[in-house]
Amino acid sequence: xxxxxxxxxxxDSQRVLNGINLTIADKEIITIMGKSGGGKSVLIKxxxxxxxxxxxxVLIDGVDITKLPPRELDKIREKLGVLFQxxxxxxxxxxxxxxxxxxxxxxxxxxxxxxxxxxQALEDVGLKGMEKKYxxxxxxxxxxxxxxxxxxxxxxxxxxxxxxxxxxDPIITSSMHRLISATHEKYGYTGVIIxxxxxxxxxxxxRVAMLHNGVIxxxxxxxxxxxxxxxxxxxxxxxGIGGPIEALNMTQ
Length: 252
What we know:
The chain is α/β, with parallel strands linked by helices.
């Protein structure tokens, strides 16, 4: 479904991606892990087409989106759903309006069809009866679930999760992971998750890819990653200070 081929990206003199090669299979969930500021969100933005690489290709369903004109790129984007880190809900819209927005913008569904889809989406994420609430009236976990419902409302082929559990307590984090699993089982999308919740995120992912120094240093099943002998992978999983991943220097 998604393939990165020798992907490079720099911002001025800062090299962020240094030859990414990764293939993501249709309908699988893959988690990309790595240190903060290491290029994970930059990689996601290449899938959406918000960034163009300095070198290399991004293929979605066999099409290199880096070479597409804007109109054709928009057609590819219709296959995507995105759960942004902060939810990115519209404060001026209630829950119903937030979830219905993509349907009103991208489809020709009538009012009753949109209402039926939104109410079903709310039920799918455990928020039945919350359609008239506004984002300010919701907890952090509820806002994340509204954002997930909005990401899924167009039944996309690919869903991108940018730190879906950031700022949530352990119990809500576990609930969110179960929700991702349940919606994946129902909708059958290809899921790409950026997460620091290791090893807890391993419960919901088929494979894990470690991004370090601008390249994917290892890809494997959660069990394979847990047993990895790669120094960067081991350090990230254990949270150790000593290792190839730079830690905060407390002496400065």
